[in-house]
Amino acid sequence: MAFESLTDKLQNVFKKLRGKGRLTEEDVKVALKEVKMALLEADVNFKVVKQFINSVTERAVGEEVLNGLNPGQMVIKIVNEEMIALMGSETTDIQYQPGQAITVIMMCGLQGAGKTTTTAKLAGKMLKKGKNPLLVACDVYRPAAIEQLRVNAEKVNVSFFSMGDSHSPVDIAKAAIEHASKNGHNVVILDTAGRLHVDEDMMQELKNIKANVAVHQTILVVDAMTGQDAVNVAQSFNEQIGVDGIILSKMDGDARGGAALSVKAVCGKPILFVGMGEKLSDLEQFYPDRMANRILGMGDVLTLIEKAQENIEVDEEKEKEMASRMKKGKFDFNDYLDSMKQMRKMGGLSAILGMMPGMGVSKADLEGAVDEKQLVRMEAIVYSMTPKERANPKLLNPQRKFRIAKGAGVDIAEVNRFVKQFEQMQKMMKQMPGMMKGKRRGRFPFM
Amino acid sequence: MPEEIKEKKGFFARLKEGLSKTRKNFIYNVDLVFGSAEKIDDEFYEELEEALIMGDIGVNATTQIMERLKDDVIEKRIHKPEECKELLIQSIYEQMKVDECEYRFEEEQSIVMVIGVNGVGKTTTIGKLASKLKAQGKRVIISAADTFRAAATEQLEEWAHRAGVEMVSAHEGADPAAVVYDSVKSAKAKNADILLIDTAGRLHNKKNLMEELSKMNRIIEREFPNAHRENLIVLDATTGQNAMNQAREFSSVAPLTGIVLTKMDGSAKGGIAIAIQSELHIPVKFIGVGESIDDLQKFDAAAFVEALFDVKKED
Predict the structure, then answer these.
(1) What's the CATH number where A284 sits?
(2) Which residues in chain A are contacts of B59 at CB distance < 8 A?
């Protein structure tokens, strides 16, 4: 997940602030200097950082804040609010033409930003929403770019249109729209060649497309790893051809994603989606407020809940049954397997912990604390039990444990440790029935 | 001799051409500081620091450079901002210069694996490198070990065709380690001078993919231990501080011997190379300044720094 290191750094700064009962102007300035460094290391544009720090300082060193009850918290709150303001607080979606009219979308960006992949991802997403998109290969320069789009279009089951590399992009776009209206497509996505924003000829080509074809939305794809230059790129594309929205690609790397903060702040164009992985389904809606919270280490509970709702087939009966059994401390190994399965569907334990507020979400900490391999071994132990043993943990005698250890390929000591932990867990659950009240989805007893 | 001089001129001109955007932005900032300041004071240093950070050099490397500069200024009793600029140029040059022996792989029987994150220009770099070496009369084989990205092999095939060199490949989705194995075998059998291996772009925080790379590296070492080895990381000049993580992580699975800095013809400043050199001591060996096949050049620190700071001769 991007932003992790930035989050770590900011949390350190905030910890220091929280620890102080009284704050002087000097304290705030020192803390904000650290915030400034953290943001710069995260590739947030220098000018944006300067502006950001100025507006926070202005609000934070006032009398009310410093003499308030909890000055540390106040400063953090101000940083958070300014951060959200920076990223824009509203979620923006692609604007479609009304009714069955064809919406033409032009994708653009630097070479290697991930346009072709993103284009296919976007089309796949639209298909799911009931649109009928047509992918058009307008990159006639890069060797095999057309082929790449064709293969990706096939993978997401979207129609594909190409005229080879001997026609001009303008002609291809025109023909594609004609093709779309004949074949009932209501969205046309033009994948254009990557180009440098300082390359006048290539920028002219985009202008030509826009001049000859009614382009409704122009989307700029920006690599999340871009440095200080991200702002120049976005600004330049916006000034020359006009941009309606931005997609940040490669957000699944460990880039701190400062580009996300800067681009919106400087050119005022919204970020529509973020690319979160190599697979063609990995394109997510961008929520600025959630992202700000995530950056500041406030967790992202909303996304967590949504993920839970998306991924868990809710079986009400089973839920109730499990809850009542838990209350009685009759949680057995089958329940354990169930909850593990649910957890995996949501992206694994570390992904979940990463989204929880106040878990001290340092990536390094998580990796030390949660060994996903350990979980796999535990699961192997459970799978090596007979159905009777799973339903009734009390059956486990040394002989059976020995057999289980052999079956799971682990040491018998590990089986013992696991069973013991399990028993402790049962006891704990019995002792805290209050926590189990109410209908909650996606419980994770082992957390 | 005259021919060589001509070529050299061509190179400098090209580098300057490629760097002109880089320089304009960077110099604009640095010169603003040097030009407007009348004396060396805290404000002057602070502005200088900002200019370096704007060049993607990063907080740490900037701090180091600034500390060195401040010490030098005191030691050498410098009072004029103009002289301070000379010092800064000198210090960055010293740091970035590349030893001639770094290009030994061109003369020996060698295997060059090209790695990096997605979309930095690995395949293009391989294509340019292949035609460069081919032009020197080398027997070159290209290995298409990017079996993941759709149409990657087709893209490389086009480059191989343009350069007129052989290529070893497999179908999409094949095991890249097997492709590496085959191509090393083939390079040996055909007594090739240089084997260039193209790998799939991968983000450096994907453990399995990095493991795959480490396996490919092991196979090369095992199958052809006598070959001269190069692992070149391709970095996009527009990348910010994340390039440091990339260099660090990649070198932990396949020891890096050099950097190829691509897309230097945009407005990006490529300053991160300075930060990487100062922390990881990996030299920049080549830079890409354009789209055509000749636009891959050996990195020349003198020209790089000169072009970066020299505003008198241009504009």
Answers:
(1) 3.40.50.300
(2) 37, 40-41
